[in-house]
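User: Please fill in residues for this 430-position structure.
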């Protein structure tokens, strides 16, 4: 009898063990060898973005990833985000160092254009075409133009996220105060600069000549149009430079414009000390509470070949995912799908930017955002910022010397020729 009981106990024990995987070999990511399911498996995800420092979206980013970890207690987001603005750009060097060391973060919100080439060529990151096709419902949430912007060599190397646009922002209350016509043509802009610089304490145009990206971008596009704009340092660019000098001669810029930081000129405009500013969608959140702010595209010039309705707009960055993370588990892809959802992205767009996905707009949209949306809706063509495609070293040197044209130390053609020579030398070395 005792022997029979031992046999029965042994059989029961083996049955229980077999039902839980005893005597079998299973993959590590199966539930058989883990007390937790795959969805509950503890995992860390290394993420790098530019949502850091004083970046507009940094607070929203912190909130979102904190909430994600609360809702997914098995996931730890290791946030390696670093600043990318101005002289504090440690973002590109960090990404390049990780690529060189072959230790990429699991996912990254990084730049498109020429900046995407090293990531694509490294082979360390997935391309998204097949992944998107495997989930057509998710794929169809993206705007087709956005996915096109994420392509490198014909493949979707990144998922565009927040778009940006540039234009002329103005405070219509100041124009009304001095009975000035709104800056819908160049003559109105010059007249406003002349009147306000001599008859008021207002700064006509709150832009820096140290960092001229939006100023030069908008005026160049309005002067030469999309095609000539892509012919780097073409002689026609000289007309755009001469228009900036015309602004300078009309007293448009604040004192010390050659040394003022972007943060300073933006603060002047937000505080109501200036009438106009060429800048981008990233500043709208700082001025949206002023009901007198409006945004329009730079008006075209009669002496140029610019196209009415063409605007500077781009999805300059997108989400990348490392091959190692994709092959390791679904955790990183799940996190990116969470970030690239209309619900999450709409929280970032409330702060600023142009959505790469189909999201609903709020009924409480502020006037300046309404005008910006109207500008984008009327756009006949979207052209990415010139510094996204042009050699960065040449562009930075060129743009940094525009002030010399304004001050009469160089002619526009002299500056263009110097830049052509510099570009030619770099191409020869390559």
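Assistant: Residues filled in for all 430 positions:
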């Amino acid at each position: 009898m005792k022997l029979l009981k031992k046999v029965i106990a042994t059989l029961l024990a083996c049955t229980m063990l077999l039902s839980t995987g005893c005597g079998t070999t299973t993959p590590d990511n199966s539930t058989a060898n883990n007390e937790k399911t795959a969805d509950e498996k503890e995992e860390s995800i290394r993420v790098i973005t530019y949502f850091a420092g004083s970046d507009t979206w940094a607070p929203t980013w912190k909130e979102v990833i904190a909430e994600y970890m609360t809702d997914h207690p098995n996931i730890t987001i290791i946030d390696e985000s670093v600043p990318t603005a101005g002289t504090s750009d440690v973002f590109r060097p960090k990404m390049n160092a990780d690529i060189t060391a072959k230790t990429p973060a699991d996912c990254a919100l990084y730049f498109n254009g020429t900046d995407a080439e090293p990531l694509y060529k490294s082979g360390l990151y997935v391309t998204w075409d097949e992944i998107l096709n495997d989930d057509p419902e998710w794929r169809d949430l993206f705007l087709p133009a956005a996915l096109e912007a994420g392509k490198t060599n014909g493949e979707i190397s990144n998922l565009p996220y927040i778009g940006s646009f540039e234009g002329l922002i103005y405070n219509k209350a100041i124009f009304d105060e001095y009975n000035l016509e709104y800056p819908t043509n160049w003559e109105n802009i010059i007249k406003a600069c002349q009147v306000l610089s001599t008859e008021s304490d207002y700064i006509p145009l709150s832009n820096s000549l140290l960092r001229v990206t939006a100023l030069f971008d908008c005026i160049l596009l309005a002067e030469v149009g999309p095609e000539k704009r892509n012919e780097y340092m073409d002689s026609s660019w000289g007309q755009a430079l001469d228009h900036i000098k015309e602004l300078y001669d009309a007293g448009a810029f604040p004192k010390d414009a050659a040394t003022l930081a972007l943060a300073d000129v933006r603060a002047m405009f937000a505080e109501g000390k200036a009438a106009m500013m060429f800048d981008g969608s990233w500043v709208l959140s700082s001025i949206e509470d002023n009901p007198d702010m409006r945004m329009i595209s730079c008006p075209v010039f009669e002496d140029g070949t610019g196209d009415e309705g063409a605007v500077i707009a781009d999805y300059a960055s997108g989400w990348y995912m490392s091959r190692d993370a994709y092959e390791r588990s679904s955790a990183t892809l799940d996190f990116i799908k969470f970030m690239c959802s209309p619900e999450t992205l709409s929280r970032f767009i409330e702060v600023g930017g142009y959505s790469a996905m189909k999201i609903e707009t709020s009924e409480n949209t502020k006037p300046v955002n309404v005008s910006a949306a109207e500008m984008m809706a009327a756009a006949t063509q979207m052209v990415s910022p010139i510094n996204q495609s042009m050699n960065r070293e040449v562009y930075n040197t060129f743009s940094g010397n525009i002030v010399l044209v304004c001050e009469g130390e160089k002619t526009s053609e002299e500056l263009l020729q110097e830049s052509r020579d510099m570009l030619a030398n770099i191409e020869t070395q390559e």
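For context: The radius of gyration is 27 Å.
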